Amino acid sequence: MSNPALRCVVSVSGIRGVVGESIDPLQVMGLSAAFARAVAGGGSVILGRDSRPTGECFAQAAAAGLRAAGCSVVDLGIVPTPTVPIMVAELKAAGGIQISASHNPVEWNALKFFNAKGRNVDQGELDRLIAAYERPPADLWQRWAGVGDYRRDDTAIGIHIARVLAAVDVELIRRRRFTVLLDSVNGAGAVIAPQLLARLGCRVVSIHGRPDLVFPRDPEPTAANVAATGAMVAAAGADIGFVQDPDADRLAIIDECGRYIGEEYTLVLCAASRIAACVAAGTPGAGIVACTNLSTSRMLEDVAARHGARVVRAKVGEANVVDAMEANSAAIGGEGNGGIIDPRVVWGRDSQIGMALVLEHLAREARPLSHVIAAIPAYAIHKEKVAMDRAAVSASIPRLQAHQVARGAEVDLRDGIKLNWADRWVHLRASGTEPASRIIAEAPTNEAASALAAAVRAAVGAAVATGH
After folding, report:
1. Distance (Å, whole) CA 95 – CA 362
2. Which of 75, 145, 286, 339 has the greatest number of beta carbons closer than 10 A?
3. In what order do the strands lie in the sheet with 240-244?
4. How many Cβ atoms sit within 10 Å of the Cβ of residue 129?
């Protein structure tokens, strides 16, 4: 007898699939047991989940697998993904598992694994986990005396909030008495964000703040999905709107006029706040580093240049950005999907520190968000999904390099292929979370960015993908 064959998407950012089709409780139990033996080594493991209807079932399966393989389980219940690695560090645990498919629709679920350092497992750890899963299940189970224990922990949210508050100028933010419209999409953010914002002196208008209900819409915080939320921001007279994804690691922003400014600006605003604070504390601009990935807007360079700070780019993926941050002692990092990484709080994406840093920046600027945005050099960014797997992307790279669309470009092959020009760029890469690829283009206008993406799509003979 063996564990069920894996039919899901497997990467260091998580093992995910459609519940009942490509991922099921038996796989969850087996994968958790494999993690216990191959990565956690029988120590204690922090367990959390987002608010999906299948989350409780999957968490129970994960707890069973962990305990049967000899690990003690500390169950946090519904918490944001970043709360899990925070508690790994706080309790000096051997690792952590978050049950969440992040921005994917409700029919999806996933396991996100963290090592003892509170980081996403690396490729070597993932390989050992999969190898352990593929062995006979009997190799994983402990005898009766070796089964791990189980306990609930309700301190995690308070600890997470305390870390965020320690990282910003709380009194500066409180003096502004911001009105914030918060859309937590009935996800894990609903258990922490209202409390955090209240501690920052905000009047909170909360919508979709019921983690006991299903997602009210497609949960990815894109412009199309949150149009109704934008109208509510303006109607409420709010200074800003914050939109989280189901596991509260990503943050999108809406200005006081109800205009969706998107996720690309999240990192830009947070970096502006963090860099300004570092300079105010006496750090020379040249000694300040912000890290991001190859697919994030060049607005970050423009904002960093105001203080002489430096931007370092890495391959797409939270783990790659974290590695670059650690190597360069970065003050702030993140990705253009609204994921903010502040190492003072957690070595991972966290919308909670994102909200606090944005409010700190607005308080320091003392002007409306729309005015702050207008002062940042604007680019148009176009993102699309195409029906190409990783092998197809690799095979298309020589063809794209030789194509006329690449004429005059600086070529970066660290992650798929990125073509850079003085005023625009385009990036084709395989997704690490879905069986598809992405084309991201940035240019001075929407038309130019869209045309650049279309030219690359035509050059490699790809079709636009549908679905998630």
Report:
1. 36
2. 339
3. 203-207, 179-183, 240-244, 251-254, 260-262
4. 25
Among 192, 233, 224, residue whose Cα is nearest residue 351: 192
**What tens digit of pLDDT does each residue of 68-87 get?**
999 999 999 999 999 999 99
Q: What CATH code is assigned to 264-374?
A: 3.40.120.10
> How confident is the model at residue 317, as a pLDDT?
86
Take residue 147 and report the two structure tokens written for it.
């089964």
**9-154 homologous superfamily:** Alpha-D-Glucose-1,6-Bisphosphate, subunit A, domain 3 (3.40.120.10)
Q: Given this chain, do its domains 264-374 and 380-460 carry the same CATH topology? A: no
Per the residue annotation, which of 13, 102, 431, 437 is the catalytic one?
102
Q: Give the SS3 label for residue 346.
A: coil
Task: Tell me if 24 sits within 8 A of 61, measured CB to CB.
Answer: no
Asked if 71 and 88 count as a contact pair (C-beta separation under 8 A), the reply is: no
Report the pLDDT value the prediction gives residue 269, as an integer from 0 to 100: 98
pLDDT at 466: 57
User: Which residues of the chain have a pLDDT value below 50?
Assistant: 468
How many other C-beta atoms lie within 10 A of the C-beta of residue 433?
18
Query: Is the Cα torsion angle 203, 355, 92, 95 positive or negative in sign?
Result: positive
Domain boundaries, the chain: 9-154, 159-261, 264-374, 380-460
By C-alpha distance, which of 131, 25, 156, 143 is closest to 78?
156
pLDDT digits (tens, 9 = 90+) for 287-337: 999 999 999 999 999 999 999 999 999 999 899 999 999 999 999 999 988
* Active-site annotation holds for 102: yes
Task: Give the span between the Cα atoms of 460 and 468, in whole angstroms.
Answer: 21
- Provide CATH code, domain 159-261: 3.40.120.10
Domain at 380-460: CATH code: 3.30.310.50
Terminal CA-to-CA distance of the chain, rounded, Å? 33
Give the separation between CA 308 and CA 320, rounded to whole angstroms.
24
Query: For the chain, what is the mean pLDDT?
Result: 95
Instruction: Using the CB atoms, write b or e for 8-31: b if 16+ within 10 Å.
Output: bbbbbbbbbbbbeebbbbebbbbb
Q: Residue 380 in 3-state DSSP?
A: strand
Cβ proximity of 211 and 186 under 8 Å: yes
Give the E-state strand segments of 79-123 in sequence order. 95-99, 108-114
Determine the pLDDT at residue 468: 46
